[in-house]
Amino acid sequence: MHGHLPYRSFLAHYHHPEAKFITFMRDPVERVLSNFRYYRKMKAARLKTGKTIRHHYDLETFIELKKRQNVMARFLDGLELTDLFFLGLQEQFGQDVRLLSNKLLWELPETAFQIKKNPTRPTDETDKAIRQRIAALNQADIQLYNRAVALKASGYWQ
């Protein structure tokens, strides 16, 4: 199985001793901004096709929504990072996919190691105050991410 699946509410039901849990994380501030760009892209696509949308969130409103905060911590709730077979970082995607494919003895085509870039236009998210607010609202994700980075640096998932 793969996808954006929260462990406790979905995957825990399938937790088998031989199951291998793998995840990729990304810098929490960048994750929120990417999520906003995706929301904005989907909103524009719906409007273009004449469909209605319920909400018109700007970035400042979007980041204040509880469901958009600490998503990584909520998705991994019930698992310890050390329970994971592998954890990769979006910031070193190609390198980590190579490492994972070696661990699993997979032979993957070169395209598997490339990052799919989001084609949406940048927003005003580079504003320092916005980034600081996102960080303040996502402390659980920041702590989790920092632990993951430290474990990776120690060679835990080699």
UniProtKB/TrEMBL annotation:
Span of domain Sulfotransferase: 3-66
Entry-linked InterPro entries: P-loop_NTPase, Sulfotransferase_dom
GO molecular function, one term: sulfotransferase activity
Gene3D superfamilies found in the cross-reference section: P-loop containing nucleotide triphosphate hydrolases
Protein name: Sulfotransferase domain-containing protein
Species of origin: Phaeodactylibacter xiamenensis
Taxonomy of the source species: Bacteria, Pseudomonadati, Bacteroidota, Saprospiria, Saprospirales
